[in-house]
Amino acid sequence: MSAFYDRTAATALRLITQFGQPVTISKTEPGEYDPETGGDTPGATIEQTAQGILLDFTGQEFQNNSLIKQGDKKLKIAAQGLEWVPDLLNKVIIQGRTWSIVPPLKEVNPAGTPILYELQVRS
After folding, report:
1. Rounded distance, CA 9 to CA 93, Å?
2. Residues in contact with 70: Cβ distance below 8 Å, sequence separation at least 6, in sequence order
3. What superkingdom does the record give (predicted)?
């Protein structure tokens, strides 16, 4: 069954690459404690490129979910090839605009094979 979902993940990546656009996901790794200064060293920003499709929420989704604010977007990202899983502390850069990830963050993951992530993003 895993081979089927691996092919499904590859198909999702191919279609999102064809019809979507590259997006950058960035996260900041915390700095380490420096005993000489008595404080933390600056953290490092790490980025990965993903393939995603940025969509508007529908009117029905606004009615059913009070957490969606005006201007929020839905971002679907192909899971295959990602170095790490996006989380709520990451930022997403799409066409030069920076978005924050807000709850909920959904993972389509049948039988333990991530296919795609659906994020709600806010600028």
Report:
1. 23
2. none
3. Bacteria
